[in-house]
Amino acid sequence: MNHQKHKNDRKVSVLNRRKCAWGVMLGLALSIPMAAHADDVMGKGRFLATGGIQSLDGAAGGGINPWAVIAGYGTDQQINPTASFTNVTLPDFSVNQLAVSVGIYNRLELSYAYQTGTLGSNVYGPNGTVALPLDGMKIGQHIFGAKLRLFGDAVYNSNNLLPQVAIGVEYKKDVTGGNSLVPALQSLGAGVEDHGTDVYLSATKVLIGGFFGYNWLINGNLRYTKANETGLLGFGGVNHDSAHIKPEFSTAVLLRPDVAIGYEYKGMSNNLSDAGLKQSSWQDVFVAYFPNKSVSLALAFARLGNVGPYTNQNGVYLNGTLTF
Amino acid sequence: MNMKQFKFRPAALAMISGLVLACSAVSAHAGYYEEFGQKQGIANIINDFVGVVAADNRINSYFAHANIPALKAALTNQVCEALGGPCKYTGPAMGPLHHSIGVTQAAFNALTEDLIVAMDQHHVSVPAQNHLIKILAPMSSDIITK
């Protein structure tokens, strides 16, 4: 009797578990500061917005650039996982990203991002014929990332200019195969590889009241990379297949503790120019809203400029990041 | 939490008041003292701040035995002094007491967040809030001991 009841309970619980899993996760994510003691290992002891958002590589940062901050809000005694969705919609293609990360003891961040996109138009020659039949081709990559905070704290030490400094590594691999852009570039003889590894050094400083009384974040990165358009167009290229060091810069002003506006610049290498494909630096202006430490939303106008076969790729960036 | 349960505990007082003692080396900004509503305005903010802390399960255990009127008076004097007002903090010394409490960064930050809540309730502008926080932030290295 008892045994039977147990079995039934278990059936119901398995069914409910499936149904409820997402609801519970969302509920957890949206529930406002827990009644937990400040020192709980899953607590969120850092200040609002200091985990940035999950950028377009899976790392915590400003949207397109990583920052030296560690994902989530964990202090040196806390661990916070994060998850995010990002969409970038441009005139001739779009990219979606699903990403997860975990910030461990405000020291180490591990991340994974899965990017996919579809090219939306062909490239036409001067006489109106299709020069490059790209419409419908896929782009996409896996990005496995790790970031280690070396020293400093972006927010404390406000009486000096010592920044928080981190080193990061990102292994990227094309996921598309078949009818996709990277193999197409390879078949054109552009010499691109389908995987690559970036290494970056990042420094972040928050100047409390530093911008006319408002908190002001300044971030600079140096990235050692062979990637074309962060890897969406493969890595390296004809006669330009050596790695370059590219600068990245972000700045943000917190109008309130929960609202940031900012600007980012991301330098791009130009490995594909000999294949007739131009790349220009990325820029964006963004607004991010952090209603609590569990969720953030960001909207940006992104100016990607020349992206391989396409010109004037300027569009909209959307990101939602959950911290658990 | 019933405020009448609080009794005086020097260590708890030291932790919370230690937040605001950084001040002597920082030059005062008369405008912000005015914006906080001078000493009476600061006292009102501190009054609400202590209420927010008492209701904050993340950190209220630190203050379970604190003497609330004494805590409020000490904090008011400290913030007043930090903002350049004509006040003087005369409570217990900070340093050694913090070690016995074992304040984590999370607890320090939670306390700061509660102060922001109280300042918001009194419509203190973001720049004025940041001015006070900037004075308090460098103390973290003395207060966070765990």
From TrEMBL, chain A:
Keywords: Signal. It comes from the Bacteria. Pfam families: DUF3034 (PF11231). InterPro entries: DUF3034 (IPR021393). Residues 1-38 form the signal peptide. The keyword Signal applies. This is DUF3034 domain-containing protein. It comes from Halothiobacillus neapolitanus (strain ATCC 23641 / DSM 15147 / CIP 104769 / NCIMB 8539 / c2) (Thiobacillus neapolitanus).
